[in-house]
Amino acid sequence: MFEDRTAAAIRLAEQLKAYQGQNPLILAIPRGAVPMSRIIANKLEGELDVVLVRKLRAPENPEFAIGAVDENGQVYLAGHAARSGATREYIATEKATQLELLHERRIRYTPARPAIDPHDRIVIVVDDGLATGSTMIAALHAVRLQQPRKLICAVPVAPAKTLADITPFADEVICLETPAIFYSVGQFYHLFPQINDDEVIAALEASS
């Protein structure tokens, strides 16, 4: 159990201290991971940016991810996507909806600069926890195409099965807790408030 995202970020930074002073690029999956990633970037003397991905929602259950899409339009579909009732037409429509939101977020989050290039960098992709792992897989896949020197996934909590699913997409996976009973990420935090866009923008501006 973590007190809050700050406590989780401090513990993650300790596990990542081998990369301190190597100018790692810390890429946060918005929104909850952005304040965490600012702490990690500061402690590791690295740079902070966001990697923009959105989950693709199941047709009858918008809280359940059947995959994810990155801001370049690349789609990752989970193995259970076909069983969810999602047709090819549904996925195309859902992809277009989420891409529009991703483009709006990029304009809001980093209006004065392009995304930081991860090529030949040590890149650490951070989220505040994983459930299905679809969003993290899409993020790792998107970053991998840009040829980082090393690609690391860092999260406070995730089910063991999800970690097994994402391991092929990263060079290293760091996870602090792998509970046997897992319902949602929020159950492992005493305080787990929603993070809004203003907080994301403030964290990014403070680290620029």
UniProtKB/TrEMBL annotation:
Keywords: Glycosyltransferase, Transferase. It comes from the Bacteria. Pfam families: Pribosyltran. The keyword Cell inner membrane does not apply. One of its GO terms (molecular function) is glycosyltransferase activity. InterPro entries: PRTase-like, PRTase_dom. This is Phosphoribosyltransferase. It comes from Nitrosomonas eutropha.
